[in-house]
Write a structure and sequence with these properties.
Largest sheet of chain B: none
Distance between the termini of chain B: 73 Å
Low-confidence stretches of chain B: 15-19
Order of helices and strands of chain A: HEEHEHEHEHEEH
Largest interface: A-B, 18 and 15 residues
Structural class of chain B: mainly alpha
Mean pLDDT of chain B: 82
Helix content of chain A: 40-55%
Helix content of chain B: 55-70%
Structural class of chain A: alpha/beta
Number of helices of chain A: 6
Strand content of chain B: under 5%
Low-confidence stretches of chain A: none
Oligomer: heterodimer
Order of helices and strands of chain B: HHHHHH
Strand order of the largest sheet of chain A: 5-4-3-6-7
Shape of chain B: elongated
């Protein structure tokens, strides 16, 4: 009896393991930066050449950092969701224009709309590396103390905002004095 | 003529090997160190390639960052640490042994061990069952 059940059981266990593996997206790499302070950055603002966007200018309230570029098709796809999120007034949405030409970025925003309160220009991609960005779009949630609380890789959806961002935001705002 | 052709072919090949990004190495030791280091680091965009082979934009940026850190005199471990802090142990093709990677390091050995135990057990079982038959075969002319 065991001679048949044991291999069968092992094969079934292996099948379950492999099937579960199918559901895991290998493109999603867990970020080691969650619950760590956001990397230090100090970048020019896209629309105000003299202004800077840095940890300091953003400190004091939570913000969402949306990494995007005009060359990124998924950014177009997620853009209405980002706009809706920004319009809801629940949180500031800051753009990180990653490895892009400022002129292209401005044209893109003129075409699709600009939901961002500030846009940091990371033309070299160095700040992106510090944030562990490996493909646009990526979206970070940073709390008032400048600590990264969540990261979403790929185009954001209303479900992700409702499931991951809003509860964390509510918690942060509840914790604030 | 053939020699000329071969020589130019070699030249072509050697060019393509370093054409990815021409970095100003000061000597061969540095270049070898760089090549070894980027071969051990995984490209996060095209995940089945290492940083040395990948032509993705991000891989290029990371290669130049690695080069820059080498110029700053950072050690290999410090450079790897820099990338691990940002991208996680995922970037290492040779990940450290720690509880979260135990399954990765010891899983295959465990499976082999289970298989070996099973094989040994079944061989012994058969060996116990066999002698009577084997004796019968030998008896035949």
């Amino acid at each position: 009896m065991w001679r048949f059940l044991l291999p069968l059981g092992l094969a079934a266990a292996l099948g379950v393991l492999l099937f579960a593996g199918l559901g895991i997206d290998p493109k999603l790499i867990p970020s080691p930066l969650i619950d760590k302070p956001a990397p230090v950055f100090d970048l020019p603002e896209l629309n105000q050449p003299d202004a800077r966007v840095s940890n300091g200018t953003l400190a004091g309230a939570p913000y969402v950092l949306n990494v995007w570029a005009s060359w990124c098709p998924s950014c177009v796809q997620e853009h209405p969701v980002i706009e809706e999120f920004a319009r809801s007034g629940k949180v500031r949405v800051v753009g990180l224009n990653w490895k892009d030409e400022p002129a292209d970025a401005k044209r893109w925003l003129a075409q699709f709309g600009n939901p961002y309160t500030d846009i940091a220009v990371d033309q070299s991609g160095r700040t992106g590396i510090d944030f562990g960005v490996y493909g646009a779009p990526e979206t970070f949630l940073v709390d008032a103390q400048g600590v990264i609380r969540y990261k979403h890789v790929g185009a954001i959806t209303p479900e992700v905002i409702a499931r991951e961002f809003e509860p964390r935001l509510a918690q942060m705002q509840g914790a604030a004095p | 003529m053939i020699r000329m052709l071969l020589a130019s072919l070699l030249l072509l090949l050697s060019c393509s090997a370093v054409a990815i990004d021409p970095l100003p190495f000061k000597d061969e030791v540095e270049q070898v160190r760089f090549q070894r280091l980027v071969a051990e680091l995984r490209c996060t965009v095209c995940q089945n390639q290492n940083l040395a082979d990948s032509n993705a934009e991000l891989a290029k940026d990371l290669r130049s960052k690695v080069f820059e850190m080498m110029q700053e005199g950072r050690s290999d471990d410090q450079i790897k640490q820099f990338l691990v802090e940002r991208y996680g142990v995922f970037v290492l093709y040779d990940p450290p042994v720690k509880p979260s990677t135990w399954a990765l390091w010891f899983g295959p050995a465990l499976v082999v061990l289970i298989g070996a135990i099973y094989i040994v057990a079944s061989i012994r079982r058969r060996a116990r069952a066999l002698p009577a038959d084997a004796a019968g075969i030998e008896d035949q002319p």
